[in-house]
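Design review, sub-item: ligand-bound model
Attendees: FS, YL, KQ
YL presented the inputs for the S-adenosylmethionine complex:
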Amino acid sequence: MKLITHNMLTSKCLKGVVTGYPLAISATNIKVTEVDFNPDFIVRIIPKIDWEVFWKAADSIGHSDGLPQTVESKLHDNNDFLKKVHRVLLEVEIDEGHLTCPESGRQFPITKGIPNMLLTEAENKFAMLLKSANDLYHEVFAPMPRQI
Amino acid sequence: MSKRPEHQAPPELFYNEEEARKYTQNSRIIDIQAQMTERCIELLLLPEETSCLLLDIGCGSGLSGAVLEENGHMWMGIDISEAMLDVALEREIEGDLVLADMGQGVPFRAGSFDGAVSVSAVQWLFNADKKSHKPVKRLYQFFSSLYASLSRSARAVFQFYPENESQMELLTSQAMKAGFYGGVVIDYPNSAKAKKFFLVLMTGGSAPLPKALGTESGEESNLQVMYARREASKRARGKPLKNTKAWLLEKKERRRKQGKETRPDTKYTGRKRSGRF
Ligand SMILES: C[S@@+](CC[C@H](N)C(=O)[O-])C[C@H]1O[C@@H](n2cnc3c(N)ncnc32)[C@H](O)[C@@H]1O
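KQ shared the predicted structure:
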């Protein structure tokens, strides 16, 4: 998982969770893969990045060196800055570890660089709404022993 | 004719290791997926010469993603099948992958993407693979979370395989309910082989749908246009708006004609009741 993905990813599909953002990173293995440098893309993506979240995420995995804590538009012409952003945003990858939902504490494992965001039906915010009245009826009444 | 994959097993089981490999090595499939992805990109109407951030829904082993890369875009993909994503990793795709079920909602924050594509995946949402699955709700859940994850004026384009007309209506209606404008574009509607369905969804206001390929000039192959026309003709026939006084009077008149018991019209008919009683 690249930090650009981390910057967009949420656990808001969990029941009882409002924003589910940002997810905390615990990394046991980090790798760096080379990606073609495209300065135009970086310039375009910067306004969409939640910079504070990006900087803290980079810092939490030891990759914030040389990355300014705030971003100013004059930096957009600075090639070294764009290269640095490119590296941390697109080349650094969490290979193994997990993400933690800031509201519920639910953990999402990351294996082979892929975060597993699958929820059980009971965890899904909307699954409960999907229960038909019939299902609910059985859940409420079926467990009761029929004694009388 | 062979059975549709969606009728055989849930997607995470159907696309197992063996199927994922078979699928990704089939040169005919590779070609077709590539062609359909190219068409999706065309229908996205992205700003020219700009590399965008796109979401690939049901990205599988990255056949569609590879085409996004070739077109200079960065992408993220979600898929429910681990086996398909494993093959994507082996193929060293550039996109970033997330294991997720689109029917549970798209797990990204608001305004993340410049556009979304989905190639041969969304028909899986018509299945009810678990007891609690309700296709209509999963579709709505999917579309509304997708709507939120797109930036303003972004589009989402889905190539899909509808089984029948009602699936197409269901898909379109749930997308509209979630806030999208748009409809289905049918390329080569008269060719059994080349016929392709694309659901084109727009976020920022209604714009005319792109023209379908392989249609005679003037011929209609654009379902959205068909739906829109149906509504317009309703209005043209002079049907009054629902819950207005005119609507109520007309309804009562109809009931009388049918011989049903109906209260006489008075000056109070169709008025708001005062909260007093
Ligand atoms: C025919 S493949 C297409 C893959 C890729 N888009 C391509 O063009 O080659 C359909 C994909 O949809 C995925 N899929 C089906 N249902 C899904 C769901 N509910 N959520 C996410 N992905 C799903 C399957 O796992 C499979 O990888």
